[in-house]
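Bit of a strange request maybe. I'm writing a small parser for structure token strings and I need a real example to test against, not something I typed by hand. Could someone generate the tokens for this chain?
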Amino acid sequence: MALLLVTLLAACSLITAPGCSELGADGTSDGGSAADAGPSDGGVDSDGGDGSEGGTGSDDGLHPVLSSFQVDHSHRDRLTFDSSEPITASATIGFIVSGKTLTGVVILPDATTGHYLTVGDDFTFWDNNTIRYQGGGDLQDLAGNELHPFTLRYVVNEVAEPALTGNVYYVNSSVSSSGNGTSEAQAFKTIQEAASLANAGTTIWVKAGDYGGENVVFATDGTPTEPIRLLGYKTNTGDHPSLTRSVGMTFSSTELPLLSGGTGHGISLHQRAYFIVKNLQIGDYTGHGFYTNDLSYTHFDNIYLKDCDWGMQSIDQSSSHNRLTHSYIADMHSGGVRFQNRFHLIDDLWSVSSKVVHEDYYIVIYGGPVDGGHNIVRNAYVYRYADDTHTGHGISLKAGDLTFQLEYNLIEDCEILNSENGSIELRHSATKHNVVRGILAHTDTFDHETYNTSGINFENGTSYNIVERSRIACKNAFGFTENEEDGSDTQPGGSHNTIHNTIVYDSQYVVGAYSPTVNTNNRWINCTFHNVDYLVTGLWNTSTDMFDSTNELINCNMSEIPDKIRYGNPSPTISSSNFHGSWTSGEGPGSLNLDPHYVDVGNGDYTPQNAGLKAGVPHEGVEYDAAGTERDDPPTIGALEI
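Reply from user aminoacidic:
Good idea to test on real output. This should exercise your parser:
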């Protein structure tokens, strides 16, 4: 079968036709930013399905769903994807891939795999990307059902590491004295001896052992094709040693190289670029495990850090393209990991505390001055020791400066326990258009009087963010606060944020509006709230309405909520919602008073079984439910379709 290939670049270079504007560095028109290209309400985009639909071309009434976005090593100019059913498309309009210019789309006829978008500049090993679809394109199934817009999706990068080149050095702490480092038999005794000789393409193999309190400093950079490698191993070079991660775990120098008990920093990569660092342990340093200020294009994998000031911290606004995967950071005295600026990836990280250490930030991303953002945090596990002396920020997006940007970041599929300063924190007015998806924020104490745990915190004027498909069981599920950190006490906690397909249970407040300025235009659509003491609270010492009627709850299922308001005078608008065992039998237009008959509350299944709840109002952006099922028309009230 012939391929359907549409290449836009040539056509657009000759004439700017309708729907064929020149594409900028982020796939948007050069006439505006990515934010300008968003939906009219300023939101990022809408929810997408889970790709579970079937289809053979007959009209099943379902819309196509795209999934499995990936870049393969053999075709680095392509971003491949699958579809839930055969599709057609003739343009890339509406698709945006972070950091790339789209040039065309290839659809395999009558197929559900192997489709791809083409890009102007090839993907590399160092890229960390997302894709989103803002609508307006012509991708559809064979029955003419259009693709719904979808929010940020992670792009799996399968481009292989650059080939090994350059000098190779060996380090073994158990040798009696250093050799020349060129073989295992002539290994250096210290890592610094090898680091001092490193240049582009150098590989340093470090055998498991106790390296004491070394302070290792690298003074040269790698290159995109010849990175410097620092690789631990247990028995044979290239093996894959690892530790079983747990809260309070101990390190083992017989499994991995261990640097421990030093002053200052364990390993300094200050102002460096193009490194690959794997299979190391660092603990008990007065400074950082890794000193990573102004570090870019570095991949950390299988790293274990504990009992330092910071695990790794970057405080330079030009840092980009770092990656931390399959790693563990514990019991830091200031914070776990801080990346800044743009295009960073944190994937499969444990950031935890097991004792009183006064840990402040567990995972934090700061903004940057030009196009800051496009960072990804996924599959993270954050555990705060409930009695730590610092209240602890779980995963934070924090612009940090009124002149910085922190936009189009993705946080997905993370679990956070016992955070009192926000399991997820969206902070500062320059923090916008971010997506938080698939979060489980809860506590292992459920003592809401002693522990002031919080789920999603909107702070200091953050706006146009989306929270979707999440579950929260904290004292405050959603908090709105202003702490004057950016020099102003006149901002709301947040405005124009959207929460949908999210379940709040076993909490004290769904919403806590604590900022001294009114929070406006936030929306909860198709959410489920169960066993919550109060729907909303304001400040205890004021009657001012800090959560006014521009805030809306639409298509929400509210069960076992005995009181609406704790403090203040909040007045959100409620419509097309269900009330059962709550403060009222109905409030707002389209209200119902039905027992949802959840499938199994004890095991967390809040799928309703009462067909009377199929009475919601369809809304753009909530075409799929919390499980990825396409919603009916009318949709079921609550987070899950019947």
